[in-house]
Amino acid sequence: MQRRESSKTKQIRQVLHENQTDLSAYLKRTTEPGKHVQNNQSSHGQTNDSLQDSLEHALSYFEKIQGSVSLKKSSILQKHLTTVESIALQRGLPPEAFGVLLKVSLSGRLADTVNTRLLKSLIPALVIPEASVVLAISLLCVGKCSGNVQVLFLRWLITVFDFLDRKKEIHALYGFFFSFLQDDKMCPFVCHLLYLITRKENVKPFRVRRLLDLQSKMGMQPHLQALLSLYRLYCPELVTIVLPGNRKAFFKNPEGPWKAAINAIKQSKQENSPVPLPLSLGMAQPRSRKRKWNTQLTIPATSANQVNFKENRGKCFGLSSTNETFPVEQLKTFSQLLRNIHRLEFPSQMGSVLTNPLLLHYINCMKDESVHLRLYYWMGHILQEECSWYVADKQQHEEFKDFLETVYRSECFLQEGFSSCEEFLYKSLPVWDGFCCRSQILRLVSWIPLNSFSEMKSHVYDPLAQLFFTSSLYFKCSVIESLKELLQNWLIWHASHLESELDPPVHSLNTTLCGLVDKVAELVHFVGWISTIGLHMEDNSSFFLYFILDFYETVCDMYLLHNLPLLILPPAGVFYPALLSMDSVNLNQLCYIMYRYRTNLVAAKENEQSKKKILQFKFSSQTYQEYNQYITAMVGCLWTSSAFQKDTHPQGLGMDDELLKTTTVQEYKHSFNIVHHPAMMGYAVLFVKQAWPDDKTFNFSLIKGKKWNWYLEYLYAQGLNGLKVFIESSVSRVSQASHSKA
Fold first, then answer.
1. pLDDT tens across 108-151, in order?
2. pLDDT greater than 80 at residue 305
3. Which of 20, 434, 679, 726 is most buried per CB count within 10 Å?
4. Are strands 326-327 and 344-345 parallel, antiparallel or unpaired?
């Protein structure tokens, strides 16, 4: 057995040396990339030789160990162990080192202390040969190493899974890994590894029964739930039990010391070298300096040397080089995606999907639930386990912002929010300070999906309201803008699902039409409430009012544009500040909004009368009554100059003449018509100048009769289209004239 293993090790080393991945080449690449340091070549060469000799001596020593050696009594073992640890932490280990170190650490020849230190030193600089890992896995069958060492090996394998040069033989060992589920210590990590390598052909009835037996024995463990959930997605007919949903994290963090060391090595090399280094496993693009949040967002690529290594190794061991699946790192064009869409195998590092538009196209088109579940797990792990509101340095803060921005762009591409991101927001908003990553957090709020309504008020609305009332004007505007985009996304989702009868329903029962109407109404009422209070706090800011009216421009057309049987008018605390606004832009926008409300209400009334009950909903008489009150106030202000007498709204402009006389304002009745209104007075001045250039008194009373109609045409020519459609639809004389003219 030892002779066979020795010959196989020699074959691996021979193939590696043939492809120029020996120690000297490795040390030369990592120390002098591009030979950009000319003045220190001699010193670097000496350092390379020293490190090369030390590591070669250490590997040769560990390869020749036959019996048990005590760490305390052997200074040679201490020396070589320290050498391996030092080089691993400084530069990472070359590919040929892993076979030797894995073999000795899992053979049981050395004490657990030494084996643990060796496993913790297995930090890759380039790639890890799959043959080395397969050889190490075979040693687990011998059972000479302790349970703690076996668990540590599995944790290492999960962490560096994407550094393996290929995974075909790992997939072939699926049944071997599955047999280790009976070990209580190893079970969580075996489930994690199986989760990464499971394919549809791996799901068998006997494995489902085994998992169910383990669950009945151990209880509802999250790692078993994860594997059962993946099995159910591949073969729902085999897994018929009900599994709890919305797990925040299926697996514990297995990364140990390896991920931090890998990121530290990568960071130091990229800072010290102006050229890309081979340690980065991204595609042939400028390397990112992100060391925590964005290191998993690139697809592990296969370099030319690695391809040659695979081919030569296949010839050496009699392995077939043909793959049934199409490697995603070779996916470059949309035509390639179309040709190979049924042969794609997603990378185990699901974060790379977020930065690849072609893979996002695949998710959007194929509706592969297994991919969604893997992406849900990965993102939930990143956001829930690794992210908390902590005081981080500036670089980590920027990395976190970039990561959230990447998630948001992916949601925009898919036109759908991630459920993991939704859970992250529910957890984070109650403790968010409103300042850290403000733009990114509010953008993510706009993509909260429709599959869970019950937590919106307590986890989204209430925290946002607290921040809204205690923050600046610009934060208030950002919140209103985010909630407007959230409403638009909900309405677009509703309209698209209404048109497509083949689409399956969303998971929650609350996404029925009644639930959708109730929750959209809740959102609109919430925005109306905070807008009313916010306008009082900001002294009816025109800037803030613009964002509020922009929100209601979406609300007013929900019935006709999005087929949602719901119309909610703005509260009086929004309507009247807009009607009396000093800004013509806001007044014009209010006129357009009321015109669209009228169009939607008229269409709804006609459908009711003709018994064409769109979506079988009717508007209440209170909605029509409130609209009529608003229209009376607007026409009384802008046209008939009778708002103070005819406005009947409880919070409206109705006042007694005696009270108005005490204001000592002359012609107070005309104060808010289209000539004297504070928002329109600038237009009136310019019109008087053009119509009566010799008049220096600015006598607005001249604008009457035929001149009044000229003034209207002048206003329309200035781009006040909202005012135009409102007057033509709501003022009877102008409406009749426009119809006759047409």
1. 888 888 888 888 889 888 888 888 999 888 888 777 788 888 88
2. no
3. 726
4. parallel
Please give the DSSP secondary-structure letter assigned to residue 107: S
Rounded Cα gap, residues 96 and 139, in angstroms: 18
| Tens-digit pLDDT profile for residues 627-682 | 999 998 899 888 887 777 777 777 777 777 777 777 766 666 777 888 888 898 88
Cβ contact 194:161 at 8 Å: no
* DSSP conformation letters of 171-230: HHTHHHHHGGGGSTTTHHHHHHHHHHH--GGG--HHHHHHHHHHHHHH-S-HHHHHHHHH
154: alpha, beta or left, given left = phi > 0 and alpha = psi -120 to 50?
alpha
CA pair distance 484, 550, nearest whole angstrom: 8
Q: Terminal CA-to-CA distance of the chain, rounded, Å? A: 98
Q: Which helix (H) or strand (E) holds 349?
A: none
Contact between 68 and 104 (Cβ < 8 Å): no
Q: How far apart are CA 56 and CA 49, in angstroms?
A: 10
- Distances, alpha carbon 175 to alpha carbons 165, 181, 508, 543, in Å: 21, 10, 36, 64
* 294 in Cβ contact with 288 (< 8 Å): yes
- Residues 276, 282: Cα–Cα separation, whole Å: 10
CA 73 to chain centre: 54
- Whether 270 and 289 have beta carbons less than 8 Å apart is answered as yes
